[in-house]
């Protein structure tokens, strides 16, 4: 890997195809590296370029029907980056494509992209606003193939999202104060049917004008595999949705917090499906508890530095909340790729690449909507800034 540097900020605007083209031009090198990472992984599984095209093409009609504007944006990204559309679809459907490839090849699962996420609600935070964050565990090479997107939209709230280069969205928030992070889950219902790949669902949630609509798109959209998606609103609330491909199970805050790793927690979910992911992520069974323990040890009201401290936890290293790069079977290098902290009422996101070996955070900002400030719990400070106005009912 190269020297650790902050994730570049890519600002895009305009209609879907145009903003995609801008994205592709501005992040060309990282997009090509990102697509190459997964193309190489499929080659190692025995798939040549023609078969990779076949796997990717299976998703495209469904995506085009569900979100034609996002397909247009991907077409623009491909044009700007000077690569084929299938490479961009692969980046945005890599979880699903890789899993289908492994099933077809009869190959064992590789380590999934695990995560530990948390939301702190206003009743437990020092300044009375929501703090929402995540450690993203995946391939260490992604420290060189990820970006932060600032999407300036004319048809809804602007978006600030961390994502793999070429991706439409991963973790982030919008100008209406809605934040989303996501965690790997696995169940016996996975990959029976073809669903909408996860980044498209996260992007649609971030396009929502209202918290209820963000929850709706996550809860009801058919998925190929299970996933956990944690959503919060700057108005002062959060819901965690443990999603099977065809059903969602809500988890609500306890004592002003939600913490989730990579195993199912909902008793209702566990009465209806089988947990199948623990063989790959047994450390999930203590990672969420470790974050809760460190937060509670802080005593009193909590701030973003307290959540950072919890996410830096190294109990049971190397299989810990914040993991240094670790060689895995098959030659993959696994690590906590990024620590992401969002304070939507302030319009601020902080990210540290490879935080186990680098504690330098870069700060990214988004101008928030006036109404979002007015609704945000504790957001009485008029110096926080002003963004554009639009009606939540429009």
From TrEMBL:
PANTHER family: BETA-ALANYL-DOPAMINE_CARCININE HYDROLASE (PTHR34180:SF1), PEPTIDASE C45 (PTHR34180). It comes from the Bacteria. It comes from Shinella granuli. This is Isopenicillin-N N-acyltransferase-like protein. InterPro entries: C45_proenzyme-like (IPR047794), Peptidase_C45 (IPR047801), Peptidase_C45_hydrolase (IPR005079). One of its GO terms (molecular function) is acyltransferase activity. Pfam families: AAT. Residues 126-351 form the Peptidase C45 hydrolase domain. Keywords: Acyltransferase, Transferase.
